[in-house]
Every structure is written in C-alpha cells, then in structure tokens.
Input
Amino acid sequence: MLALRVAFSAALLTLAIAQPPNLPPGPAMPLNSDQYPTVTDHHCLAIVCSYINTNGMIRDQSANLDMNANRRRRAIGCDGITNCRTSTTGRSCDEIFYASTYSGGLGCYAADYLAIGGTMANLPPLGTHRCVDAVENSAHGGAVNRFYQRANVGNGGVFYFTFLIPASGCMNARSTYCRRMWNVANGYGGDSFASICHDGHADGTQFAGIVTSQRTRHPRCPSRGYGPANITSSDDESADSLEEEEDYGLAGNITVTPGPAPSLTDQVYQLSSRRFIWSPFKNNGTLAVGDTIIVQIMVPGNDTNTEVEEEETVIAAGRLQDILGSDSLPDCPT
Output
C-alpha cells in the first residue's frame, strides 16, 4: 500500500500547482477574531502558507453528508495523523476546507457533487488541519450551519469567508498570525508571509498542510481515483478503527507542496458600524457599496454568552489608508 500511496501522491502534487478554480460569486461569511481567535488564525495560516488558493467553498447538503464529512476529516488528517487529545489539551482538530463542503477532505468524497454537474476542477487538492480551542471550534461549526441557512446556501452552493476587522483596525490579539498577515498586506515592514508560515509550523500546535489523503492505514481518495472504493462504515469509521489508526509520530514529518502563492489585497469594506470586512483574495471580490451583510456578535452574560446577529451595510470600499487616512493607520502590535 505504501507504493500505491507514493505513486498517487506524485500525481496530486502535479494537480496542486493548478490555478485557483473559477468559482462564481457567492455570499460572504465574516470570521470574527474576537469570537473565534484560534479558528480565525488557522484560516490566516492556511492562506499565507498557500495551503488554500481560493477561499471559495462548495456546500455539501446531500443525503451522504454525515458519512462523507467524517471521511473528509480523516483524509485531511484529523484523527488520521493528528489527534489533538482534547480531553487533556482543550483543543480539537479544525479542518480547512470545511468537512461540510465538497471542497473538504481534498475533494476526495465528491461523488454527490459530480452527480449534480460539478467538476473536480472546482475542488483544489489542498487543505490544512490545526489543533484549535475546542470550545471555539464547536461554536464556529454552529455559526457555519446558521450561515448556510441565513444565506440560503444549498447543495452545491458557493460561499466565501472574509475577516471582520474591528473599528480600531486591529484583529484580536490572540489571532497573532492574522494580525501579522494583516500588517504585511497593509505594507508594514519587518515581516513576511514566509516568516508567518514558518512560525505557524514551529509554534508547537500541530498544523499541517495536506496534499494527499492522510489516513494512517489505507490512504484513500475515491473521487481522485486512488484507494479502495468499496469502503464500509465498519471498516472506515468505527471507534476501534479510530483508535487503531492514531499515529502521533507522523504530524511532524509531512512533505508538503503548497499551491500557488496567494494574491492578497489590502482592499477593505467599511460597514455602517465603522468595522471593516477584509476579503483578502484579489479574485474573490464579492461585496460592493450598498450591500448588506450579517455579522455575528457575542454578547457577554452573567453565566453564558449569547450570540446575536447584526445586519450591516457596506458604506465604503478601498484601501484602509485611503478610508482612514495615511496618518490614522492603526498600530497593531504582535
């Protein structure tokens, strides 16, 4: 099986240098670093390390979603090569692209997408996983599901993620890599995307870019043509199988060939609350002045926090320094 894995890895590495798919416009989901700082940081690392080359994703709402979401998590390395040991660390494995999308799991489980006319060219064989705060990870998963419903993202629907920047111009201090990425995009010296990526790998939190199925036994990716196609739930997803396939030694020894370097922009959209939306990819401008967007905000309570949704309007678009003035650019220390 090892020889098979190596042979098909080479094929995937060739695919990984393809240009980003030409996905249609879709609704934008703003990531709020004040609510999900470690999850948001993972998205930023995925961008600067070139483990995703578009932030567009394609929702899976098929009858096989639950089964394939589990398989996608395994293919991207969650519980396959990386076990975050949630009970002792308080962290859980976050995957990009999301397991609830055909884009997730390297596009390995896309039969239902192909059945509705989709093409594999829209599913880059790239992705990441990272151990993030488990409470944040769960809350963000719920927020994604609410976004699907609110934005009417159905089966095969395309959506994008963006970043919510507070009115101060600085993302949450716990989103260290996002702050650094934001600073570099806005022309601050002394840092680089390469340095941010290097530090993300070296910070002791398991983080890996993936270009081939990372199941520790029998790597498989049916939609890309390798591995056994007749996978049964008892063989593939049982609790015993999960325990048997844990391998803590592989996470630091992955050879990764990323996709093309991201083409980032400092374009922002100012909202009626004076906060900003940053959609960093130049080819995914999905907002315009006058558009409305729903922002999820956590309101602190006595015992628990309550998430509320606020509708905002885009009132300005352009570079941050043009909107605020070059003398008013924020200083966001990292």
About this structure: The two ends are 45 Å apart (CA to CA). The mean pLDDT is 77. Residues 181 and 193 are 7 Å apart (CA to CA).
